[in-house]
Amino acid sequence: MNPFLETLLDTPLDDTYRGIPPGEPALPLRAVASRRWQPRNGDMALPVLTLDEAAFAHNVERIFQYARSHGAALAPHAKTPMSPQIVQRLLDAGAWGGTVANLQQAAVLLRAGVSRLMLGNEIGGAASGARLGKLLAAYPDARLLAFADSAATVRSLAAAAAQAGRPVEVLVEVGGGRAGARDDAAVTAILDAIREQDGKLALAGVATYEGAVASSDAALTATNIAALMERAARAFRQVRALAPHSPLVFTAGGSAFFDQVTQAAKPWLAEDGNAQLVLRSGAIFFHDHGTYQRALQAMDARAGFQVDGQARNAATDFRPALRLWGEVLSRPEPGLAICGFGMRDVSYDQDLPAPLAAFRDGAPLAGWDAQARVTRLNDQHAFLAIAPDSALAPGDVIEFGISHPCTCLDRWRVFFGLDADGRVQSAYRTFFG
Q1: 164 and 307 share a domain?
Q2: Residues 347 and 323: beta-carbon distance below 8 Å
């Protein structure tokens, strides 16, 4: 095992970490299962964020099955969990590599032994380029593919190559709505700038991100993605003309529209014959009870989740794996319960958390009000609208689903994996900086 991962498993967990009961003697992260904690019993400090291990493993199997059926590879975006343990599990499952959004994330994964990365973002200026070069010099055997959407970015990557003492591989980014070259002329300017660098840079392919051109209108989104993919295809042909014999990469695909990317790219990648489609989906492994559930329902409406030529139901094939557990603190008035978590504990940029079940002394609570809903969050408080006659009382534990894993996991230094009985069987360190 990589030394960094080995050391990580010996991280002492004590009550400075959310979830660990106050006064609990510190124990190594690798030994957390020995406590047999169950969040619903209230024997962990609440709130606590957990991962349904079976659901996560199921999601891994499903998205890899999809990728294999389309001849695609996966470089999961590590920004979602920023957990080297999770990334290693995905590599063990067959991932091509990992994707990161910045140099701090790259440094973490390189230290954890990941040998192939995409830097799925522009690097910035020359100073950032020099920092990238120092990082690459420290890991001479690692392969990193970096995005470039302008001549200025190309110059920054050339500075990285000079610092690293070896070429940097470049993916020309085509985009809309966010970063990325906007037209064929911009792509030509990027390629001209790369050729001016006298071998410091190597053309590796083309990148895009289709989610940046999405909107609330499904038809408009489909039109925008199709147009983006047409521009990406033209950019790919420009790159191929300059690298006629090199194996190239085309990369795209978040967790909401990867089907449209796959269907659009497969014909021209097959025609090329020497290129790999790499999907960068990250949130799909965790799924959720909100924004990605709606995204997969929309995918099903267009029959997009095709595996081995058969349409599958993505909205039911993938399972929400993350849960937040919170305790009822107060019933100050009829129709209101106050729970002990807030904006510091859970995502709220897409949807508020969704109550799923309630427990008293570890047993399911009847009459708790399945129609309950979170109406707002403070820093440390959640406001739960309930029926006036709800059985909820202070001390009851509520299980919540979340929306948008990427902005939930980053609030936690450690989250805990649960087995089929709801007992803690694992713990995952995160490194968001």
Answers
A1: yes
A2: no
